[in-house]
Amino acid sequence: MKSVDWLIIDWGTTNFRAFAMNKEGVLVSKTERPLGLLQVKNNQFSSSLKVVLEGWLGEYQHLPILMAGMVGSAQGWIDTCYVETPTSINKLARKSHSFKLPWGAQATIIPGVRYRSPLGNFDVMRGEEVQLFGLQTLESKANFVALFPGTHCKHMQINANKLSSFTTFMTGELFSILLNHSILGAGLPKQQDSLNAFKKGISESNKKPLTNQLFYTRTHRLFADIDETEVSEYLSGLLIGEELKTLTTKNIYLVGDNKLCSRYQKACQILEIQVSVIDGDDVFLNGMLQIKKALNDEK
Amino acid sequence: MKSVDWLIIDWGTTNFRAFAMNKEGVLVSKTERPLGLLQVKNNQFSSSLKVVLEGWLGEYQHLPILMAGMVGSAQGWIDTCYVETPTSINKLARKSHSFKLPWGAQATIIPGVRYRSPLGNFDVMRGEEVQLFGLQTLESKANFVALFPGTHCKHMQINANKLSSFTTFMTGELFSILLNHSILGAGLPKQQDSLNAFKKGISESNKKPLTNQLFYTRTHRLFADIDETEVSEYLSGLLIGEELKTLTTKNIYLVGDNKLCSRYQKACQILEIQVSVIDGDDVFLNGMLQIKKALNDEK
């Protein structure tokens, strides 16, 4: 482990992932633990981290650590507040919070980002902003739209190299609770892939208010307009359709894990939206590398 | 119990209610049991019913029974199918299903109703149609709109004395699963009444796609735009607002129980919709009485 020079940590509500990087910013080793915020009791963040690092790297006392995610929220280790849009990677670096760990090494937490919509509502995120700027430096584009599918999907708008606005859609979480806790998922057999049911969901989305439209998931099943095994696909299409039909561009980036991105990619194909799919981990590490450079430039 | 002439049963998914009526159609006695469809095992409907009647009335063998609700669904006692809109009370009576009970008495199940929207989607109901026609004969109106708040709220349109169309909104169920199973309800303190938070929810509803708008329930709480104790009221306003803003009339009936109707009534006041509130039980019993008369006229 001699070549490890610094550490990157993605510390979220349910997951903990750590990446050991060398001086050139190349990944040397990584680890993942079931140590999300919900698992850390009584604010034992530094001792939890110490246990992971001892088991994983042994020698780690001198390594500086860069962290992002919900670890910087009010429910996390240190509440780092939010940077307001429009924002750049330099602003994120400038507003990040550095402190000394009990074993002497330096830790830095990247702040979240907040956007106030013209209607006065706030959107917030923690973690995706790092991926976004990682993507931006990889692609060298000043203006684009990027989607980050997930529990709470983020649609981000980059204008003149700055993150100018973003919107959150609770698509993933709604899908999950509707399927697991509502009448729509009650008594379903094992679900199967179905492009037809997914397409039907997309085509029917946004034609009616969602609280009404969702009920057709029930009646389609009742009258065999969709098969019992395809309810999940129809519902997925309905919710992703509601989200994608808000887009005003026909050209986007999709950032995230393969499985979810390929579902969104299929939806975009149906809606004739051009897509570039980007691996979420790649741009996360690159984003952290860029933030590290920006932090060093400031010194 | 000599004066009891016939029985009315409202048999739903989670509730069983029975009403003993005299010859003049006046309520003599009623009972309620935790004997919804979900509690009746192995299709033991007639033996379950027998146990209730023996305990409640003793002598019941000669009494004809009129039933409505999910008891007539595929998951119920006998699948009575659906009558198509436009429909009248006479059509409901004509299409109801009569059969002999093991103890010799006659039972009749009122069918459900189905509406096919111009987009080709189906809405369905079982039980509310009885209340609707009970309301109609009480009010003697040929054209009106009636709302039946609940787990799945129904908006019904009466034209020329017939039920011409209706729409289902999953307002109640969405409210419940969002509060109990999503991040919006996570870690909330005891909730309190708040007209302001309810108003805010109504005023913000339908401005954005719901999958996006719902997330503001989270950020309003995060930034103290609404109090921790008022999240439930805001969410209720958001979902009821989405529903009520689809109305094209400014004059409606609200049918149901007091608590839920008074919540909808408040929302209508805010949206300047004129409301007549009608007790759900009254119009249910009256609807069953009218159906009984129609059945007798046919003989």
Automatic annotation (TrEMBL), chains A, B:
It comes from Marinomonas phaeophyticola. Pfam families: DGOK. CDD domains: ASKHA_NBD_KDGal-kinase. This is 2-dehydro-3-deoxygalactonokinase. InterPro entries: DGOK, DGOK_C, DGOK_N. It comes from the Bacteria.
